[in-house]
Amino acid sequence: MFGDSWTFQQDGGRPHIHRKTQDWCRTHLPCFIGKGHWPPNRNVMVWLGACSKGVSPLVILENGTVDHERYIQEVLPVALKFGNDMFGDSWTFQQDGGRPHIHRKTQDWCRTHLPCFIGKDHWPPNSPDLNPLDYFVWDEFVNAINRDLVTSKTALINELKRSVKNIRSEVVFESYAAWANRLYRLKQANGNCLNK
């Protein structure tokens, strides 16, 4: 199972998305606005987990900064429950290199509670090509958002909750089915970004 987070912003009725992989977003997401700092009262960070069987419940991290303590308290229990519900005690968790994820206490929590996880020293560095959320699932989620309904932060949150339910299971399955092939192609490209 992979986990990842995005920050959405309500601005003039249009949600914007901020990601570290900005070139990918500029190419694939019509509402992407690039680097920037937004007023915190209009930001909504969300976390989503995904596996071949579907997506986890959406975790909405509405107020404040997400540090390792908040990540451990609000996100990791959702990841654990979802992984266990989908696969019992036989699954592996991979997150990205975000600061809350690489913190020693987060890594300790994962070692203690998860059946298996890929530790920070073994993650591929900043590779959207190897996380199905980055190369497929987020796009499906964003395309499910009805931007006309987003007129306030509350409306954005409601639309995010509605939209995550519209992520098609066949799209999620297909993105995971393609993962081994993407891994092979990335190796053939000597770790360079994959062309579509």
From TrEMBL:
Gene3D superfamilies: Ribonuclease H-like superfamily/Ribonuclease H. GO terms for molecular function: nucleic acid binding. It comes from the Eukaryota. This is Transposase.
